[in-house]
Structure prediction request, 179 residues.
Amino acid sequence: MAKTAIAYKEKMKEISVLSFICSCLYPETRKNIMGDFQDMDIKPLNKRASGQAFEVILKPPSPVSDAAHCITSPPKKDISLEDIQKKLEAAEDRRRSQEAQVLRALAEKRDHERDVLMKAMEENSNFSRMAEEKLQLKMEQIQENREAYLASIMERLQERERHAQEVRRNKEMREEVTA
Prediction:
């Protein structure tokens, strides 16, 4: 009896107040703490420093349990030659259908690749054409700028030449007046 009281006191230290109240109110639920297993016994051992210890004892299999666990395979039907032929034809149809599906997927993939390639070629062509037009416009602009620059230089040169002729004429007139 003293051992039981000591074990009860140790148990009281471990469990919370709420579970103590529950165990007092419903003592029948606490009777089977270890659980009920058909093919094993669980016995609690003394508490150790590392925690609670249990001893698990496996029961030998009983002849009744062997019959309960034995699973029989379903009875085999006699398969006729016609059934086998039907199954083979169905398998062949599935294989053909799967092959057709794979071929369809490959054709779609090839069409998609072709479309992507055509689009890339078209974009490349458009880019090349746009770059060529842009370069052409730039070259025309450069040519116009060059012609305008040359025209302005020629205009200045002619103006200087006129100014030089005017200066020469004025000089000659001065020399004639002074002479």
Notes: The two ends are 163 Å apart (CA to CA). The longest helix spans residues 81-178.
